[in-house]
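Quick one, T. Sequence first:
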Amino acid sequence: MAYVSEESGGREVYVQSFPARGEKLQISTAGGVTPKWRADGKELFYQALDNQLMAVKLEPGARLKAIAPTALFKMSPTSINKIYDVSADGQSILVNAVAREEKPSPITVVLNWTAGLKEN
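Structure tokens:
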């Protein structure tokens, strides 16, 4: 299982077998929230406190081993409640974000345009 704890003084992501049989392993290195597993359990994603979406490969064995986190991309600060999801194979990520509001294009309305045709 993956979870977030503040026992170190800041929010960090940990993994531990469930029910707890072994020691926990800290996954994040500089804070993290919202962990999500890839379907096969070989990779864990989380959001670092600077809004970077991170990926960590995990090597199963007698003792679980984590490879150093890799930054994938910076999530928009407008992402709503830091909601994201990962596809089963870990190759696609969907992020809930507010679309940018574009300025509307001006509209020109021409009245009585048929009168202008008769003058020519």
